[in-house]
Amino acid sequence: MTRSPRALTLAVIGLVGLPLAACAQQNSTSAETGDYPSKPIELVVGYDAGGPTDAGARLVATALEEKLNATITVVNKPGANSQIAYTYMTNAEPDGYTMAATTFPSAIMTVLDESRNASYDRDSFAPVALQVVDPTAVAVAPDSDIKTPEELVNAAKAEPGQLTATTTGVASNEHFALAKLQEETGAEIAPVHFADGASAATTAFLGGNTDLLMANVSDLKPLEESGKIRVVGVMDAERSSFLPDVPTFEEAGYDVEIASSRGFAFPAGTSEEIVDKVSTAIGEVMEDPDFEKQMTQLGLAASYMNAEDYSAYWDETEQLFSDLYPLVQENN
User: What's the number of CA atoms in the CB half-sphere (13 Å) around residue 218?
Assistant: First the structure.
């Protein structure tokens, strides 16, 4: 069939118009990214004001305001182990103006625990940057016979289930740490859960109600300095700058690395340009010696990862928790 001159003209216009439209859309996106941010950014925190996650988020928010020439408002939406905050953020428009402080294990466990009926999953988050990695450590009373990771493992294996250790709740970071230690060494330690948090767990331990205190390194440092506890080992590949004299479980030959972490994420679908811009800005902020000093004063172990590395770290941690979850449920 022979096409009319008009049909041929329209066909040519259509072919030319497609790349022009694509270019126009790309230029529009670039312009929007170049103008970003043009209005206040909301940073949602799933915990009450004044806690370590909130303090770290506010520290970053203040520094980012200057770096991005923006207004950043921290909004606390506590409850349900941050599930309320994550639900709010993942349902927001992916325009770069709603961000959340993301913590592990909460961002992972609220998804893995199907009984929570979370409306989001891993793919609902666009990771931006990691701010803090705080390894789990094990402490005993100052007069305890247990002084090293090896002695802890041997004592637990000699009397399976007799040693007791604090956790901040079922499927908490400490609970996973006990499961990982058992998986790696065969040492069975009975968890004692304190859903009210680290303060309640610490009070119980100091009162002689458990044999071991499981907590983040940053939480144990002041107790160790005051002589109230002795830290046996840190569950990380390298020694902590907060407790440089304390050996790691890795040094003892046990592949046990468990840590809580804090970072930031946008809703999935947020443009890569915006994610990278904010991620880079956070990295520049965290390189500042004054900012690092403020982090240390707050007891926060700075550990920056950009968006790509944080995303990979998220996937690896989710896989670790997913693998350990059956054992955690068994030892509930």
Answer: 19
Residue whose structure tokens are 């988050």: 125
CB neighbourhood size of 124 (10 A): 19
In sequence order, the 6+-apart residues with CB closer than 8 A to the CB of 169 are: 175, 193, 194, 195
Q: Which CATH class is domain 145-234?
A: alpha beta
Q: What's the chain's Rg over C-alpha atoms?
A: 24
Give the C-alpha separation, 165 to 284, whole Å.
39
- Beta bridge pairs of residue 125: 267
Q: Where in the chain is the domain with CATH 3.40.190.10?
A: 145-234
Indicate the DSSP class of residue 248.
B
CATH code for the part of the protein at 39-134+259-330: 3.40.190.150
Helices marked H in 172-258 — which ranges?
173-185, 198-206, 217-225
Q: Residue 208, Cβ neighbours under 10 Å: how many? A: 8
Alpha-carbon gap, residue 113 to 124, rounded angstroms: 16
Q: What is the Cα–Cα distance from 16 to 20, expressed in whole angstroms?
A: 7
pLDDT tens for 203-240 read 999 999 999 999 999 999 999 999 999 999 999 999 99
CA 40 to chain centre: 24
- How many Cα atoms within 13 Å fall on the side-chain side of residue 316? 10
Q: For the segment 49-86, what is each residue's pLDDT rounded down to a tens digit?
A: 998 899 999 999 999 999 999 999 999 999 999 999 99
Residue spans in the chain of domains classed CATH 3.40.190.150: 39-134+259-330
Handedness of CA 260, 197, 215, 43 (dihedral sign): positive
- Inter-residue contact 110 to 83 (CB < 8 Å): yes
pTM for the model stands at 0.85
